[in-house]
Amino acid sequence: MTKHAAFAAEDAVTAVPPPAQASRLFSSFPPRMASDCKKAAQLGRMDLAVSGVLRAGSLVDSMKASSPRYSKFAASGDHEDWMEKHPSALEWFEAVQAAAKGKQIVMFLDYDGTLSPIVEDPESAVMTEDMRDAVRRVSQNFPTAIVSGRGRDKVFNFVKLEELYYAGSHGMDIKGPTTVSNHKMADEVLCQPATEFLPVIQEVYEMLTAKMESIPGAMVENNKFCLSVHFRCVDEKEWDGLSAEVRAVLEGYPDLCLTKGRKVLEIRPSIKWDKGNALEFLLESLGYAGRGDVFPIYIGDDRTDEDAFKVLRDMGQGIGVLVTKFPKETTASYSLREPAEVKDFLRKLVKSSVTKG
Ligand SMILES: O=P(O)(O)OC[C@H]1O[C@H](O[C@H]2O[C@H](CO)[C@@H](O)[C@H](O)[C@H]2O)[C@H](O)[C@@H](O)[C@@H]1O
């Protein structure tokens, strides 16, 4: 297994044709309930070919693969080549505008590493007031959802905007806006396909928390339908031991699987439901499924966001934007370097929508 095993199964990159102008057509709030997401998720149950699910042997390789120093794009020529395939959404803003022209933009935003910078302590990953203001303005112009690996309540507590959709636990916990156009709505949960896993997730959380106590820097975060085992602050020499402990616990839980994010191992139910399903669910719920005049934009920084990028690529609509300073294997068609650029992009989008709308 190579050091890049985590990316080995990624599809080849396909750039979405450059694009357009934002319009303010959306009027479909409040959303209608979409089809039964639980049934859909159970149908794909145990389909472990999806979502970069990690097999036992690849775990430590995969943990290393997220470090820039292991990147297969280390040479500067490779970087330039990568940038040609995934141009900056800011520098190529006119192309994005052109592709979205006359279409309804629907905005999907990942949280960590996209709206907030990556920091050592997950509890301290706050977003700036400036970023909050940019997201608020986007949501006043386009339907907007936050799609995060965090528990829904936790990510809401960081973002603090009631007018947005929230898909927490990697899309397994979706709720509509609490406030829509000054009218109060019921606090309505739209989709929770993994409720039966709650007891088992809690059990594994307790077991892993106990195991991680002996590994300095390790931390387990309870994200309701998923768990995150953080190793950002763990000495690399301990990664083997950490991954062995996690694997040992999971051996007793064949209905759970393991994926990897940025210096974090994610434990989740083995159902076919990921950020890509959440994106599709929200588009359907908003009444945009199957429409050619919709332009979804999904901005994310993580491997779990690739599921959503792939959905957009397969739809042939909208764009995926990967937030990264380093070239990475991705299905996203554009890139941005960091949350500050995400904010600039959001502001530009609003400005062009207000000017032309
Ligand atoms: O889908 P996201 O919103 O990107 O959430 C993915 C995970 O993000 C958080 O962890 C990451 O950010 C932390 C804070 O910057 C950082 O310390 C950690 O190393 C990163 O992996 C969050 O804590 C996880 O629960 C999310 O699953």
Blueprint of the fold:
Blueprint: E1 22-23, H1 37-43, H2 59-65, H3 76-85, H4 93-100, E2 103-109, H5 129-141, E3 144-147, H6 152-159, E4 165-168, E5 173-175, E6 179-180, E7 183-184, E8 189-191, H7 198-212, E9 219-222, E10 227-230, H8 239-251, E11 256-261, E12 264-269, H9 275-285, E13 294-300, H10 306-315, E14 319-323, E15 334-336, H11 339-356
Parallel strand pairs: 1-2, 2-3, 2-13, 3-4, 13-14, 14-15
Antiparallel strand pairs: 4-5, 5-8, 6-7, 9-10, 10-12, 11-12
Helix pairs in contact: 5-11, 7-8, 9-10
Bound molecules: ligand L263DTV3.
Q: Can you walk through the features of this model?
A:
This protein is an alpha/beta fold and 357 residues long. The chain has one domain: HAD superfamily/HAD-like (Rossmann fold, 3-Layer(aba) Sandwich). Helices cover 34% and strands 17% of the residues. It contains eleven helices and 15 strands. It has helices spanning 37-43, 59-65, 76-85, 93-100, 129-141, 152-159, 198-212, 239-251, 275-285, 306-315, 339-356, and strands at 22-23, 103-109, 144-147, 165-168, 173-175, 179-180, 183-184, 189-191, 219-222, 227-230, 256-261, 264-269, 294-300, 319-323, 334-336. Strands 1, 2, 3, 4, 5, 8, 13, 14 and 15 form a nine-stranded mixed sheet that branches. The longest helix has 18 residues, at 339-356.
Question: What can be said about this structure in brief?
Answer:
With about 350 residues, the protein is of the alpha/beta class. The chain has helices at about 35-45, 60-65, 75-85, 95-100, 130-140, 150-160, 200-210, 240-250, 275-285, 305-315, 340-355, and strands at about 20-25, 105-110, 145, 165-170, 175, 180, 185, 190, 220, 225-230, 255-260, 265-270, 295-300, 320-325, 335.
